[in-house]
Amino acid sequence: MFVLAELKDNVRIAPDQFHLKLVDAVRDEIDRKLANKVLLNVGLCIALKDIVSLKDSIILPGDGASHTEVLFRYVVFRPMVGTVITGKIRNCSREGVHVTLGFFDDILIPHAALQHPSRFDEAEQAWVWEYPLEDGAKHDLFMDVGEPIKFRVSREIFEETSPIGPPKAEAQTQQGASSSSAVASATSQEVKTPYRIIGAINESGLGVLSWWDQQGKDEEQDDEEGDEYDDEDGEGACEE
Questions:
Q1: pLDDT digits (tens, 9 = 90+) for 88-106
Q2: Whether 11 contacts 67, CB under 8 Å
Q3: Where is the composition biased (Acidic residues) (predicted)?
Q4: Cα(195)–Cα(101) distance, rounded to whole angstroms?
Q5: Cα–Cα distance between 26 and 203 in angstroms, integer?
Q6: Residues 40, 194 contacting (CB under 8 angstroms)
Q7: Which CATH superfamily hosts domain 83-161+194-213?
């Protein structure tokens, strides 16, 4: 789930940080720059592990800061496809179940990857697994907000979210206030998530933890009742 990524960067240390040791100043600057940020095709940066090497610092003309090429290792959150993770249900929508890990919220379990058959309850705003019983009836198992849920990572999606520059000249020359507001509205709606995880729970043992905890308790209770019945049969045979 967490991996070490070896990265290289040119770190700028401002003059007001020159009183610190170079290593300490570099550490602070790297964490300020990367902590809780997503690097494209790398993952969510968590914390600096260590510094592998520091090259000589230079001061560029017109800039009083020092610039140092640094090779370092950073702890990154990027679970492998197939990894099983336990999180909590953040909310549900028709799209599926949204899960949070506390430090990472962009996890979606699509409705097609839920236990089958499932339905979306509009009143409860929750997905419901219609668990089939032996007599042909169905028992509703709700996926409520805040419930711990175990899922398998099925896919990861990285998206480039860096600015791509000012709007084209054609867009700037559009006439009418309505056209301008429409362009602004469309731009504001194009909010991209840099890193998303797609999960699945459509296999035995995955899903809301309480489902399987209760099933385990029921099986233990059935075993205990079976043992008591066997003991009674044994005592009866001895009396005869």
A1: 999 999 999 999 999 999 9
A2: yes
A3: 219-240
A4: 14
A5: 47
A6: yes
A7: Nucleic acid-binding proteins (2.40.50.140)
